[in-house]
Specification:
heterodimer; A: alpha/beta; seven-stranded mixed beta sheet; globular; B: Rossmann fold; five-stranded parallel beta sheet; 13 helices; 16 strands
Chain lengths: 519, 376
């Protein structure tokens, strides 16, 4: 078995840093702006009096701290952050955490780009619009579909765009009352159920067959004249590619429904398989995953939405277009669903992704897919040799694609150490905590790993080595994992049940004061 | 937070299992098991659980019964314990379990921790109903009920967490038992006896995941809301037993029969605790009908366990297209690769019921799921 290089003496900064509001001292100011000069005040009058309708009735409860406190507070927090550029981020299955070339960050921080404003006249931003237009064409080529919008600000947003367009499509045909069901699968991304539900559809979820592939007979039974569309991911979150996807599409099309392909994570099949050949009407890509731009912490992201001609009349506006002379923002889509966000999209992400595609070219994009699948299969073979770890639908004879959903169910039975405990311990070796699973946890005690093309053999072996050590610890000294982490800043939730309780959860300081400090 | 803990060990629980007797109910079987070389393991399993409570022994008040029913093991581990009941007996029976549970309820314990199997759970249910919080240390042969922690150590850890935490959720879990004599003849006839109140163990034992997943209470509200808003006029609703279906009558402002069948017509309960004859006669008057049933968690039964009033004849008259199955997604996920099972007593109707159904798991939220046999 190959030897990895686990960081056995890892130690991360751990500051136990209070919340900034807890550092507040009444009257302290970081910055005291000078008073308005008398001459200016004489000219303008009392400006605030003219803004009565906009002014807060009560002062905001801002923390009162010095500049130095602000600086040390945020620096400490940054030191406690295990970002993807610091660790071996194989961990984030379903997220495609890959190396984001630094040179692309240079492009995005160049004043020639940062000084642009989305409200500038089209004539003055032809270069940027050209990048949008050409990147749309890349996405059309990768998907095989006819049109592309880069307006959605992320993956869920692109899926919601699809749901909104499907609603518009059926409304346009006077059939929204009868086409009110969306079919999805349990191992598709949860947004494939959540966003159509938000758009007003009923959701029918398909469970897997004995091999982990969506039960095609269940799809056949669910499909009817009420089917508005199917939303499905492929490969699904467990890393299994559905080889009967074209058959699924036919079932849905035969009852008159539409087909949306969630390709948020396209790393397994770049240059290998396309939505068009599988028969889909729409698809989307998370540009901040597959196409080499940073991913995480709610953005910035871009969901590239693609569709066939039949869905074009409902696309969001504006789409970046070209009339053979100049690039322009096309608002002339008569049945459009309108804007799904301001402007044409997140330009920084588009710029970096454009640079990534241009540097990779067709052949290396295909190679990225090949290497990510090879890496994953190597990692799987090593990990499944570790006692206590199994994988979802193990031994079904199907080669996994870019990720695998593992399970610590056996370890839990043997030692009472489960995936949350392993996750709390793995960070003590300098690895970011891993992604367990989307909800619900159909596969018990899950861990989902995705070693995309970025990671070297050394990286893979390091990960295996750490997992092996942690599992050994679980069998010999389970308490070590139950009380982890020991060398990291990462903490455990001490009252997890409160996340389920609207009377207890607190997303802001005000809510925390109201719900927890008032008694 | 809990502080007063009652401990009941059924010393003979599980004794029949290791020697292949499929259960340990009754003195004859227990004698036979011992003759075959069976070892009493319930106390060992209870010890594993109790060890998790040693760090908290000064924070709790422990009540138990004499000898092998708890006193011995508590003394061995050094717990200060208040022993209830009469002197220790050489042989204990189901009656002793019932007496112990009733005594502990008298003492107003916060939770009864018991080591046993389905027979023990049933006895405790008989004694305390669902008024007292209970948690099982799995120690019996038959573990069909949903009242147990994953294993003895998990049971101890869960109690330890409840000692330390101010709040915890509870849920009602099924008390199931099978007829052992019939089971020995190869016939499984599990029966739903009732519901015990248990801690909502998922958060503690299986660990909480990130936020965003609705708790059981919210999920049940959503299911109930969906069923009520889609109820049709002039259609008879035959509502089966269970905690999942309970909210329907309650939301409409009526009493509900937890272990029985209620009939609802135009959003009014027209009959509580209906038997098969009541259902059939109602169907004469209201031929347009729908059946609402739930899934027995971990068992996957939808017909033939605890809802025999909805007989094969009733099902034939109503039609499979008018069956509405409701369930929390958690219940389906316990055995997600096993079909839902029917045992109506009529092979013909069992076959007729096979196929895919839309299981209602939330508001306008359904799962396509197969009804069939275990080996399908």
């Amino acid at each position: 078995m190959p030897k990895g290089k686990a960081r056995n003496k890892f130690q991360q900064a751990r500051w136990e840093e209070p919340i900034i509001h807890e550092l507040s001292n009444k009257g302290v100011r970081g910055l005291i702006p000078p008073r308005v000069e008398a001459e200016i005040q004489a000219t303008t009058g009392k400006v605030l009096d003219n803004l009565k309708t906009m002014r807060r009735e009560e002062a905001p409860e801002l923390p009162e701290v010095s500049q130095k406190t602000v600086l040390s507070h945020w620096l400490r927090l940054s030191q406690e952050t295990m970002g993807s550029n610091i660790g071996n981020d194989i961990s984030e299955g379903t997220c495609t955490m890959k190396y984001n070339p630094r040179i692309n960050e240079e492009f995005a921080s160049n004043p020639l780009f940062t000084d642009l404003h989305p409200m500038q006249d089209e004539d003055t931003v032809q270069g940027m619009l050209e990048i949008y237009y050409k990147f749309q064409n890349f996405m059309k080529e990768v998907s095989g579909l006819d049109h592309c919008s880069l307006q959605p600000g992320g993956g869920n947003h692109a899926v919601y765009t699809a749901a909104s367009m499907i609603r518009q499509y059926w409304s346009d045909r006077g059939a929204l009352d009868t086409r009110d069901e969306i079919i999805t699968t349990i191992f598709s991304h949860p947004s494939d159920a959540a966003t159509p539900a938000t758009a007003g559809f009923k959701i029918i979820t398909i469970y897997p067959d004995e091999n982990g592939i969506p039960d095609i007979e269940a799809i056949r039974a669910a499909a009817s004249e009420r089917t508005a569309a199917i939303f499905m991911t492929n490969p699904e979150d467990i890393g299994i590619y559905n080889p009967r996807v074209d058959e699924v599409v036919k079932i849905i099309h035969d009852v008159g429904g539409l087909c949306f392909y969630d390709q948020a994570n396209a790393n397994a099949f770049l240059g290998v398989a396309r939505a068009r050949e599988a028969g889909f009407d729409m698809c989307h890509f998370n540009v901040h995953k597959t196409f080499g731009t940073p991913h995480g912490c709610s953005g910035p992201g871009t969901g590239a939405f693609c569709c066939l001609d039949r869905m074009y009349p409902y696309m969001p506006v504006p789409v970046v277009d070209f009339d053979n002379e100049k690039y322009f923002l096309n608002y002339d889509i008569p049945k459009t669903i309108g804007h799904v966000r301001d402007y044409a999209g997140v330009s920084g992400v588009v710029l970096k992704a454009y640079a990534w595609v241009m540097s990779m070219g067709h052949d290396y994009m295909r190679q990225a897919a090949d290497v990510s699948v090879i890496n994953n299969n190597y990692l799987e073979k090593q990990i499944l040799q570790i006692k206590g770890i199994t994988s979802a639908f193990q031994d079904n004879g199907i080669t996994r694609q870019e990720q695998v959903r593992y399970s610590f169910e056996k370890l839990k039975e043997d030692t009472d150490v489960g995936t949350d405990d392993v996750n709390a311990r793995i960070v003590d070796f300098g690895l970011p905590s891993y992604w367990t699973s989307h909800h619900p946890w159909v596969i018990p005690e899950p861990m989902t790993l995705e070693p995309c093309e970025t990671y070297s053999l050394d990286d893979l072996n390091e990960y295996v080595d750490v997992l092996r050590k942690v599992v050994d610890e679980a069998y010999s000294d389970p308490e070590l994992l139950k009380t982890a982490p020991h060398a990291s800043s990462s903490h455990r939730r001490n009252k997890p049940e409160e996340l389920d309780d609207p009377d207890k959860w607190a997303l802001t300081w005000r809510a925390y004061q109201r719900k927890h400090l008032s008694n | 937070m809990i502080q007063k803990i009652g401990l009941i060990i059924n010393p003979v629980a599980g004794i029949g299992g290791s020697v292949g007797l499929k259960g340990s109910d009754g003195e004859e079987i227990q004698k036979k098991a011992i003759a075959l070389g069976a070892v009493k393991k319930a106390n060992i399993r209870a010890e594993t659980a109790l060890k998790e409570l040693i760090p908290f022994q000064d924070e709790i008040e422990l009540f138990t019964y004499p000898g092998d029913m708890g006193e011995t093991i508590c003394n061995k581990l050094g717990f200060k314990v208040k022993v209830l009941g009469d002197a220790a007996k050489e042989k204990t029976t189901a009656e002793d379990t019932k007496l112990a549970a009733a005594d502990m309820r008298e003492q107003a314990v916060d939770i009864i921790l018991f080591a046993g199997g389905d027979g023990t759970a049933r006895d405790i249910y008989t004694a305390v109903g669902n008024n007292t919080l209970v948690l099982g240390i799995p120690a019996g042969v038959k573990i069909h009920s949903g009242v147990y922690a994953l294993n003895p150590r998990s049971a101890g850890k869960l109690i330890a967490l409840m000692i330390q935490n101010d709040t915890f959720e509870t849920q009602e879990a099924e008390v199931m038992d099978i007829d052992e004599d019939a089971f020995r003849r190869g016939i499984v006839t599990a029966k739903l006896y009732g519901y015990l109140k248990v801690p909502y163990a998922k958060h503690y034992v299986q660990n909480m995941k990130s936020g965003g997943v609705a708790g059981e209470k919210l999920t049940l509200e959503r299911i109930t809301h969906y069923i009520i808003t889609t109820m049709l006029e002039d259609v008879l609703y035959i509502v089966g037993p269970g905690t999942t279906t309970r909210g329907i009558a309650e939301e409409l402002g009526y009493d509900n029969t937890l272990l029985g069948v209620d009939l609802i017509y135009n959003k009014k309960v027209i009959k509580n605790d209906a038997n098969e004859k009541d259902v059939l006669s109602s169907l004469e008057r209201h031929p347009h009908a729908k059946i609402i049933v739930t899934v027995i968690g971990g068992q996957n039964y939808i017909f033939g366990r605890g809802n025999q009033q909805i007989s094969a004849e009733v099902i034939k008259r109503v039609g499979k297209e008018n069956i509405i199955i409701i369930s929390t997604q958690d219940k389906l996920n316990i055995n997600f690769n096993v079909p839902l099972i029917v045992d109506t007593g009529s092979p013909e109707v069992d076959d007729y019921l096979k196929g895919y159904y839309r299981i209602v798991v939330g508001y306008e939220d359904m799962i396509m799921y197969k009804v069939g046999n275990y080996d399908d």
